[in-house]
Amino acid sequence: MLAIAVLITLSSCQQPKEEKRPNILFIMSDDHAYQAISAYNDKLIETPQIDRIANEGILFTNASVTNSICAPSRATILTGKHTHIHGKIDNNFPFDTTNVTFPQILKQNGYQTAMFGKLHFGNNPKGFDEFMILPDQGDYYNPDFITPKGDTTIMGYVTDVITDLTLDWLDTEREKEKPFLLMYLHKAPHREWIPAERHYKAFTQKIFPEPETLFDDYKGRGTAAKTAEMNLRKHMTVSADNKIYPEVAKELKIVEPSEWGFKVFKSKYGRFTEEQKAQWDAVYGPINETFKKDYPGMTNEDYMRWKYQRYMQDYLACIAAVDENVGRVLDYLDQNGLSENTIVVYTSDQGFYLGEHGWFDKRFIYDESFKTPLVVRWPAKIKPGSVSDEMVQNLDYAQTFLEAAGIKAPQDMQGESFMPLLTEQADQWHRDVAYYHYYEYPGFHAVKRHYGIVTKEYKLVHFYYDVDEWELYDRLNDSLELNSVYHDPAYQDVVDSLTLKLYETRKYYKDSGELDEAYIQKYRDRGLIK
Question: pLDDT grade, residue 257 (50/70/90)?
Answer without folding.
Answer: confident
